[in-house]
Design brief:
single chain; Glucose Oxidase, domain 1; Rossmann fold; 7-stranded mixed β-barrel
Amino acid sequence: MPDAYVALEGGHVVEARARSPGTARGELVFTTAYTGYEESLTDPSYEEQVLTFSYPLIGNYGVRRERFESDRVHPSAVVARELTDDVADWLADEGVPAVDHLDTRGFVTEIRDGGAIPCGVSAGPDATPEDALDALDACVPMSAHETIGRQVSVDEPVVHAGGGPTVALIDCGVKGSIVDSLSARGAEVHVLPYDATPAAVSAVDPDVLFVSNGPGDPANFSDATALVEEYVGEVPIAGICLGQQIVARALGGTTEKMPFGHRGVNQPVMDTETGQVVMTTQNHGYTVADPGELTITQVNVNDDTPEGLESADLDVLTRQYHPEANPGPHDSLGFFDDVLAMADRQRPFRAVASD
């Protein structure tokens, strides 16, 4: 007898095996990565989503905390063809429902054909199809998670000491490896809440304003957008993933939801000037539709969506993908060197006295 159920949009219920008990809901998405499952599961960008792994076996090299990108698992539930006991036990300890022994290929095909969809998950000895359907009914679109930043951001500033340029990093759900990449280059990184005020940024007196990755709709990060509007032209600005989208919106651009997004470790990105192609890790469901005042410098080879935006006049540099991603690829790690190089050309910072 099955002891887990996944309810999909339209009322279709799929039977499965429970590996971690509980009930959850969220947007059903998939990743094509076959390594890096620890990093994916602790990536804040998966908040409020049910993560399906397309690779059939997840957990074949165990679970090590030093690989985590944050201090907890972020997907609301996990779906796989087969989970090892190591991963299943970890998810149970985290209180995150997980199921396996179902056709994940079918899920991936459905998402690719129809886009990311709401779903409900119920797992455990008392699970019923009705529980999964009730969870499905409680789903809301990602755009309706208006305060999702609060779920993944620091509450108070956190400082990572360094002797180099000072970076004010707006934490919209930052991955630990982004902070590590900046720190490894000597930067002093001040991680600020997603809704930081201009006064909080002014107190840092940064050489670079950096907007992080994170979950959800960039339209719901109005405070971060306002910071970019406030300081563009006054201090160099950089962003990764959600950060690129926020920066673009602040500079007259627009964003849109993608059918099923980019989630995996093999997304090809081409430089529009040189034609060079690098492989990248990505995790996002929204993209820049119009770059506004910025210039598109890199595009996704598969669908031509913007992967890099720049403005030499404004000292702005962003990437849609994750140059720092673990376990890789690391073809584009030079992005962090380019960001900190902007600090060497720093404009005089205009302090803001109050909110």
